[in-house]
Amino acid sequence: MFEKSYDVAVCGGGIAGAAAAIASARQGKKTVFIEKTVMSGGLATTGLIYIYLPLCDGYGTQVLFGIAEELLLASLKYGPGNIPNWRIGKNAEEAKRYRIIFSPASFTLAIDELLVNAGVDIWYDTLICGAQVENGRLTAVEVENKSGRGRINAKCFVDATGDADVAHFAGLDCPTAQNALAFWVLEHAKGAKWRLEGSIESVSMHADGGSIDKKRGMSGIDGAEVTKFILDGRAKYLARLKKEYASGNQSRTTLFPLTLPSMAQFRTTRHIPALYKLRDGEDWKHFDDSIGMTADWRKSGFVWEIPYRSMVPVGLKNLVAAGRCTAAEEDAWEVTRVIPTAALTGEAAGTAAALCADKGISPDELPVTVLQDALRKAGNKIHLEDVGLAPKK
Ligand SMILES: Cc1cc2nc3c(=O)[nH]c(=O)nc-3n(C[C@H](O)[C@H](O)[C@H](O)COP(=O)(O)OP(=O)(O)OC[C@H]3O[C@@H](n4cnc5c(N)ncnc54)[C@H](O)[C@@H]3O)c2cc1C
To answer: What is the pTM (predicted TM-score) of this model?
Structure first.
């Protein structure tokens, strides 16, 4: 069994994990990024979810900054895509806000580059399969890769697995949820609705989206169920191909998959039991412990402050969560679960973990003003007033 030690261990390499690892390493901490696949970006890349939702409120005000904006720009560095003229929008539709469609493979290359430049130690093809807890403190995660089984010690950990795997392995009772079947692919589709701007017309991207089966019924935390979810999605997609071929609208040379998602497209699985769960209707609310803002991607004019407490677990020291496994319910979850908010909570979690490692404290003991100062220094805005908006609640 091998053993390694770090200041900060970022568990899970999706958008939240990437932002967390970059932020922690930029704070000068020895940081490891542990990812079970061989790609950075998680659902946004491996999962082929290629729409970076808006950084603005739909009325011309930017509300997300820092690494959330840096990643959006990075997603365009090695591939096509354009930022709309979002500053002039008033009650703008989603496509006219500060949001883009990107190429998932291009995005992975750019994220890798940011991680390497920040000095992050990247461990791909490494599955986290357990956690070690001593006196209520998380001390290590157990991993498995080609070298065999290992133990990664850290002063502080970020759970960015999307599924709260670390919190779960550490014995926390994590709330769960249900998912509609979803299946997004990248395909060659003549006349496709979704297309990477700037790409040649016939090579397109297509969302055979979450609407293909409205039935909610899979939690994504059972091994057999995950396989069923994947096979059901593929079967639906295959049925669509067959139908199009049979109708004569398309043929196997005008419509075919270029690549399939290589992770299950669950929107929500587990989240941490947190000090605070963000609730429906808490848009426009001031939180003293805000770590930044996000905007509702479905409708213009709804801005949310995100409380640090929704990232901090109850009942376990040395862990902070980021991304879609932070605590939010129903409508609030719809705004916290998306790519830009995952980047925001990732940067906050990585910064918090680095500060905790520095001070020898746990995330629940970190004075939030210290975190807010560090985030501001890195270019983030914390409260509605910081971008010229005013709380209404
Ligand atoms: C069908 C669908 C459509 C969506 N549409 C959009 C959209 O249009 N725009 C948008 O902005 N968002 C959209 N989202 C949401 C968004 O893609 C994700 O919520 C967001 O990318 C989550 O990022 P994350 O880093 O929190 O988690 P994930 O992307 O899930 O990343 C978690 C990472 O951790 C790794 N991991 C998990 N467990 C382990 C383990 N035990 N050991 C090691 N590694 C592990 C995974 O491999 C993964 O790389 C959609 C999601 C789905 C499913």
So the answer is: 0.96
**Cβ-contact 149, 143 below 8 angstroms:** yes
Ligand 1 center–CA 250 separation, angstroms: 32
Return the percentage of the chain with pLDDT > 90, whole number: 82
Domains annotated for the chain, with CATH where assigned, are 2-177+269-387 (3.50.50.60), 186-259 (no CATH)
Condensed to tens digits (0 to 9), the pLDDT of residues 338-378 reads: 999 999 999 999 999 999 999 999 999 999 999 999 999 99
Alpha carbons 302 and 287: distance in angstroms, whole number: 15
Choosing from 34, 37, 49, 165 the residue with most ligand 1 atoms within 8 A of its CB, the one to mutate for a pocket test is: 49
Distance 150 CA to ligand 1 centre (A): 25
207 band by pLDDT with thresholds 50, 70 and 90: low
Q: Which residue's CA is the nearest one to ligand 1's atom 48?
A: 42
Instruction: Give the distance between the most distant pair of CA atoms in the chain.
Output: 66
DSSP-based three-state secondary structure for 39:
coil
Which of 69, 161, 229, 297 to mutate for ligand 1's pocket (most ligand atoms within 8 Å of CB)? 161
DSSP 72-118: HHHTTTTS------GGG-SS--GGGSS-EE--HHHHHHHHHHHHHHH
> Which long-range contacts does 383-391 make (Cβ < 8 Å, 24+ apart)?
383/286, 383/290, 383/293, 383/305, 384/284, 384/286, 384/293, 384/303, 384/305, 387/61, 387/62, 387/63, 387/293, 388/61, 389/57, 389/61, 389/63, 389/303, 391/284, 391/285, 391/286, 391/305
DSSP string computed for 313-368: BSS-BSEEE-GGGS-B-HHHHHHHSSHHHHHHHHHHHHHHHHHHHHHT--GGGS-H
- Nearest Cα residue to 213 out of 236, 181, 185, 177: 181
